[in-house]
């Protein structure tokens, strides 16, 4: 571990006790070095291009430049210097409208938030965590909740499609021509591999679904450096049919899902939500989740 990483780990630990030590970025990263007030600040840039018909392109730009920032103990000034050096590095880059610059940073670092906003970034996604505590009351919903099966694929696909379409209005989802086929394939994968998919029905009519999984952060996966090691429950998707929203369907689904995940010995649960969404932040905070990391994006990318 180099001195900048040690300084940053110490700062993160003081900022939020749930932040794990930072993890190494992909090996193909390009170094970015600068200084602020006589203190060093560094980072690593990663460039990724997704085919527009691929799964990741449903949830963001097809071309992404991502910065793993390591300003050490230089604080907000160091982060501002890194963003300025990044902008200069990108000058002349042929970035189209379907592109973005991204950076993930601890949600509780208000000084960093001010810097990112000043550089044209917007907070688009939060990774939120919940302690392994008993679930809340399911609420007054009339629905019944059961594990979904292969016979529910069509209903689950429609519910996931409704959630994705809403997210395209208030989150990072991007309209793509193969969306239905990709979402249906993800429904099938979830049913066959995690098996933790629940369907809520109101008198036999699908009203909502929750898709979950178990995850253990390890080197090389996307959660390494975001969560402490151990077994976690992952809430992948919660979708309530538009006509059933506001009736307690989401609470009923999550009461069942949290109870099941808690029984599997997880150290906590996590999920992603979009701060601009007028529904999900309020719902998830009431469910006991709180932001840990915020994913910031500038769209389109600097050029």
From TrEMBL:
GO MF: acyltransferase activity, transferring groups other than amino-acyl groups
Keyword Nucleotide-binding recorded: no
PANTHER family: ACETYLTRANSFERASE, AMINOALKYLPHOSPHONATE N-ACETYLTRANSFERASE-RELATED-RELATED
Domain of life (superkingdom): Bacteria
Protein name (record): GNAT family N-acetyltransferase
Organism taxonomic ancestry: Bacteria, Bacillati, Actinomycetota, Actinomycetes, Pseudonocardiales
SUPFAM superfamilies to which the protein is assigned, alphabetical: Acyl-CoA N-acyltransferases (Nat)
Keywords assigned by UniProt, alphabetized: Acyltransferase, Transferase
Residue ranges annotated for the N-acetyltransferase domain, each copy included: 143-303
The keyword Transferase is annotated on this UniProt entry: yes
């Amino acid at each position: 571990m180099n001195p900048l990483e040690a300084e940053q780990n110490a700062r993160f630990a003081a900022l939020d006790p749930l932040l794990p030590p930072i993890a190494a970025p992909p090996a193909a990263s390009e170094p970015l070095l600068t200084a602020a007030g006589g203190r060093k600040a560094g980072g690593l840039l990663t460039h990724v291009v997704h085919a527009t018909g691929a799964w990741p392109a449903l949830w963001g730009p097809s071309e992404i430049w991502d910065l793993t920032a390591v300003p050490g103990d230089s604080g907000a000034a160091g982060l501002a210097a890194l963003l300025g050096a990044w902008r200069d590095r990108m000058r002349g880059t042929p970035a189209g409208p379907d592109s973005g610059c991204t950076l993930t940073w601890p949600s509780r670092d208000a000084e960093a938030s001010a810097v990112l906003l000043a550089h044209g970034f917007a907070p688009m996604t939060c990774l939120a965590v919940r302690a392994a505590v008993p679930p809340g009351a399911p609420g007054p919903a009339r629905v019944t909740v059961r594990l979904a099966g292969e016979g529910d694929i069509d209903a689950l696909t429609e519910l996931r499609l409704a959630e994705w379409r809403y997210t395209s209005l208030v989150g990072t989802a991007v309209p793509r021509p193969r969306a239905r086929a990709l979402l249906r394939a993800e429904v099938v994968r979830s049913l066959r591999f995690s098996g933790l998919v629940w369907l809520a029905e109101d008198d036999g009519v699908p009203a909502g679904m929750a898709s979950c999984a178990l995850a253990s952060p390890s080197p090389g996966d996307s959660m390494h450096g975001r969560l402490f090691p151990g077994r976690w429950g992952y809430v992948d998707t919660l979708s309530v049919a538009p006509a059933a929203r506001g009736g307690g369907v989401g609470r009923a689904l999550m009461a069942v899902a949290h109870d099941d995940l808690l029984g599997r010995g997880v150290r906590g649960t996590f999920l992603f939500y979009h701060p601009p969404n007028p529904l999900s932040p309020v719902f998830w905070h009431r469910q006991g989740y709180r932001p840990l990391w915020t994913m910031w994006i500038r769209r389109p990318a600097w050029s």
